[in-house]
Amino acid sequence: MSLLRKGALALLSLFLGLACASGASAATASRIKDIASLQSGRDNQLIGYGLVVGLQGTGDSLRSSPFTEQSLRAMLQNLGISTQGGQSNAKNIAAVMVTATLPPFASPGSRIDATVSSLGDASSLRGGTLVMTSLTGADGQIYAVSQGSVIVSGFNAQGQAASVTEGVTTSGRVPNGAIIERELPSKFKDSVNLVLQLRNPDFTTAIRISETVNAYAGSRYGGPIAEARDSQEVVVQKPRQADLARLMAEIENLVVETDSPAKVVINERTGTIVIGAEVRVSKVAVSYGTLTVQVTETPQIIQPLPFSNGKTAVQPQTDILAQKDGGPIAIVDGPDLRTLVSGLNNIGVKPDGIIAILQGIKSAGALQAELVLQ
Q1: Residues 6 or more apart from 186 whose CB is under 8 A from it?
Q2: Domains of the chain (ranges, CATH numbers)
Q3: Model confidence pTM above 0.70
């Protein structure tokens, strides 16, 4: 077995072995605030159209991007500068789309980050400055105004015969560049109850959350206040004598034993395999082999005999080598995660082979888990 194969399998075994070191159960203790979010505390998306100026010749071509020239003329006219009858060939300006996320309970005057992405044919936004841009929500109202220097992580350099590019140069961020001008119309304390939304919907976890909250409320408020609606939502009724903010602060720090379904997540592009702790495999026999076909072209040049008036010709010659590597039949029986990983490693295949084996085990009906392909 090659060192690369051993290293990949050892890393897979170590990664998956850590998940089952504490036992076969997938339940882990987590705070409610880490596994659920408040429904009234949702984020809101903001969007706006603006201009980035101050680029070093890497902006939009005004002829190729007519909307950039129109935006430039409109901005200058708003500043009292007439641009009638003139044409600009400047390459230091770019039209961009500005996006931001309005956090819950944000108040006017606070700052959030903004993301800037090029709309035209600009090659780089590095060194540019975003001009004041209004950011609107889905209701068409302006909730923030963004302006500031654009930070671009990528770079590009080019000459007449070569160029080097690293990262994305047509997208950047304006840290703390958006100032919130309007708060959301709804207030937290206007709610009559709390709705907790699980980030990973699961009926078992939702029931455990309601039971944990009711056990706490029984001693604190004298009765149950939580009810699991479905696998994602848990409704907590506000007691009359309780303050809603204090109630949420008390509930979010309660510890709950979470549960998750058995899943195997496979990313065939990167060769990544993630196996959940509750995955079980019935006893199966597995044999893995690879077929390698090598085609080699070695054309030969044939010269004519002297004084024969012949022509030089090329005679093709193809060598095909087929090689099949097969391994012994191995028994894979995974009553727990550690045994499953050990059995897969004993077969002695690369991670891409393990992916094919897991897919075959699933097709045979021996994989007691959901197989997710990405």
Answers
A1: 40
A2: 3-25+263-373 (no CATH), 44-180 (no CATH), 187-258 (3.30.70)
A3: no
